[in-house]
Design a protein that fits this description.
The structure is a single chain. The chain is of the alpha/beta class. It has eight helices and six strands. Strand 1, helix 4 and strand 2 form a beta-alpha-beta unit. Helix 3 (about 55-65) crosses helix 4. The protein starts with 16 loop residues before the first helix and ends with a strand. Bound molecules: S-adenosylmethionine. The site of S-adenosylmethionine (SAM) has 14 residues, from loops. S-adenosylmethionine binds near residues 103 and 142.
Length: about 220
């Protein structure tokens, strides 16, 4: 289990926290549907337009090098949304086999053409895959959207379907200010801790993969 930031090349954006906070109570319920409003509605209720812009290419490269992935390997992205990261994995590792799972029918219907055949609807806490079917199981900014008990199952499921590597990234905060910003900003997370809380949960569940945090600045 390593604490390593494999999204260190991912661009950091300034978040309009105040604007979101004012709209938040009304928008939270809508956001949690993970439908069109969350992905492609306005910024107060989610992404404000979740469009491919190539920002995952460097992340896919970083992971490919870090885990030594080649065309013989199989990768699962839990919470794959429109499949941007999987698409980029196919660019940086031609021949690699990819699969994705997401709870959002909207996101999967709008998945990129080359990955659409490989994405399925479902929930992170009940993965419809056999034990040890993937060489790398990734989940980025997804499992904190489940209540604690289901979040635990999601972590166990990542372990079950992986035969080698796992990487999970979750919402967290290092300072009181970051925690306050996170709580003002976030719409969908149900389970979140400071890093120590996450580390304790990972240990308790014998999670043997890698992990890192998404921090709201
Ligand atoms: C913040 S987005 C992250 C998407 C993508 N991994 C990324 O980093 O751009 C959260 C994603 O989790 C998905 N999601 C929420 N609850 C889920 C669940 N129980 N099982 C699987 N996916 C879920 C949402 O539909 C959404 O695509």
């Amino acid at each position: 289990m390593r604490e390593v930031n494999l999204l260190d090349s991912y661009p950091r954006t300034k978040r309009p926290i105040r604007e979101r906070e004012q709209a938040k109570l009304l928008q939270r319920e809508t956001a949690r549907q993970f439908g069109r409003e969350y992905f492609d509605g306005d910024r107060t209720q989610g992404y404000g337009g979740y469009r491919y812009d190539g920002r995952w290419i460097s992340v896919a490269k970083r992971m490919q090098e870090f885990y030594g992935l080649g065309s013989e390997h199989r990768i699962l992205d839990v919470g794959c949304a429109k499949g941007f990261l999987l698409h980029d994995f196919l660019q940086v590792t031609p021949g690699v086999r990819v699969a994705g799972l997401d709870i959002s029918a909207y996101a999967l219907e709008h998945a990129m053409d080359d990955v659409r055949p490989f994405v399925v609807i479902g929930s992170a806490d009940r993965l419809p895959f056999a034990d040890r079917s993937f060489d790398l199981v990734i989940s980025i900014n997804t499992i904190h959207n489940l209540e604690l008990d289901r979040c635990r199952h999601a972590i166990l499921e990542m372990g079950r379907v992986s035969r080698a590597h796992k990487y999970v990234q979750v919402d967290s905060f290092l300072t009181d200010e970051q925690k306050e910003n996170f709580e003002r900003w976030q719409l969908t997370a149900l389970t979140y801790f400071a890093p120590d809380g996450w580390r304790r949960l990972f240990r308790e569940l014998d999670y043997a993969g890698d992990y890192y945090w998404t921090i709201t600045e």
